[in-house]
Amino acid sequence: MSITSENSQNIANDKSFANELNIWILQHNCARSTQIMHACMKFAKIRANIVILQESWMKDENIIILHSSFIYIKSNIQKTWVRVLIFVAKNIRKFICTSRSNIVNSKDIQAIMIANNKISDEILLLNIYNEKAQNAKKKQSYMIEQELAKIRLNDNQKVVIAEDFNVHHNWWNVKIANLIRTKALVNWVRMHDCDLINTLNINTYHNYFKRSSSVIDLAFASRSVQNYIKNWHVNEDADTKFNHEVILFTIVTEKIKLVENLLNTSYNLQKVDWKRFDMHLQKTKNEMIIKMQRTINLKTKVIYLIEYIKNAVNLFVFKQQICAKLKL
After folding, report:
1. Residue (of 305, 199, 231) closest to 48 by Cα position
2. How distant is the alpha carbon of residue 161 from its chain centre?
3. 86 with 112: CB under 8 angstroms?
4. 136 or 273: whose pLDDT is higher?
5. Cα–Cα–Cα angle for 39, 41, 44, rounded to 5 degrees
6. In sequence order, what are the residues at sequence separation of 6 or more whose Cβ sits closer than 8 angstroms to the Cβ of residue 254?
7. R_g of the chain, CA atoms, integer Å
8. Percentage of the residues of the chain whose pLDDT score is greater than 90
9. Where is mean pLDDT largest: 116-120, 205-209, 266-270, 317-321?
């Protein structure tokens, strides 16, 4: 199933959503509630091109959803509650979404391919709900262990995986001391050279009864597409009256020069020797100033400044490592 359109309808009046060259993705768990799903889709109408949901209310495979702004794509699974669902805006321009049931055909994992002439190669988007199978026994494994582990992609495949993983790891939440259900996910993202999209330690789920919060709604992207991902955030304006936050992020497709976002890189800031870092900056500052004084070109000055800071980062700030010896 492919979806594309060349209609010139306005997506929204919101300036942050005005650039139709970029792809805005919204993710949310709807708790099998029609009310939550309608509230989510109402918000998505003005903020998203692609909506990836889990736990929708679509229990009957014969139900057809008619929406004024979106076309839905669901897994081709019969006689079972399909727990993942993707909506694509009807008025999308410049990119095509294609269902890829040949990669995975599951009620809990959904695959679509996003093609855009501004990005070389297609981007595979995986929508995942990591729970036990319906009517599962207590010892039965979760969906990541059953389904995701079976998916093997080409080394050069650009991929984004997102949704409710129901796993706990100090990679995305430093408060976690005991890792829960992380082995299959961490192994898969490492195998496919993926990194975290989430901003670290931002809670995505709130248990109001227990008065606790956690980070279980996650997104990862392969390093080949990481620099195209920006603006991951929990949207405070989207209130669906549910425990899960509404999350938005963007795939940048406009023609701009992209640089690595250092804030999204998993640096281990807790182990930085900031005193030595500052001393190095002070020691090399005069050399950097002299280089900048030799040119009147502003862009060249900026390049020198970036090199000055990156040299210090490379010497004293190290990236976090997911240790193979961790007890997952």
Report:
1. 231
2. 6
3. yes
4. 273
5. 115
6. 19, 21, 22, 118
7. 22
8. 28
9. 205-209
- Return d(Cα 62, Cα 73) in angstroms, integer: 13
CB-based contact 280:312 (threshold 8 Å): yes
CA angle centred on 81, ends 27 and 29, rounded to 5°: 20
Lowest-confidence segment of 181-185, 265-269, 321-325 by average pLDDT: 321-325
Residue pair 106/143 in contact (Cβ under 8 Å)? The answer is yes
Question: Distance between CA 124 and CA 37 in Å, rounded?
Answer: 24
DSSP state of 42: H
CA dist., res. 115 & res. 27, Å (int): 20
Position 37 scores a pLDDT of 87
| b/e per residue 295-320 (b: at least 16 CB within 10 A) | eeeeeebeebeeebeeebeeebbeeb
What are 28's strand-pairing partners?
A: 53
3-state class (DSSP) for residue 53: strand
Contact assessment for residue 192 and residue 225, using Cβ atoms and an 8 Å cutoff: no
* pTM of the predicted model over 0.85: no
Domains and CATH numbers, the chain: 2-251 (3.60.10.10), 267-316 (no CATH)
Question: How far does the chain reach from its first CA to its final CA, in angstroms?
Answer: 38
Q: Collapsing DSSP states into helix, strand and coil, what is residue 71? A: strand
* Both tokens assigned to 199: 């901003």
Strand partners, 220: 161, 196
Average pLDDT over residues 36-58: 87
Tens-place pLDDT, residues 156-198? 899 999 978 889 999 999 899 899 989 889 999 999 999 999 9
**Which amino acid is located at 293 in the chain?**
Q
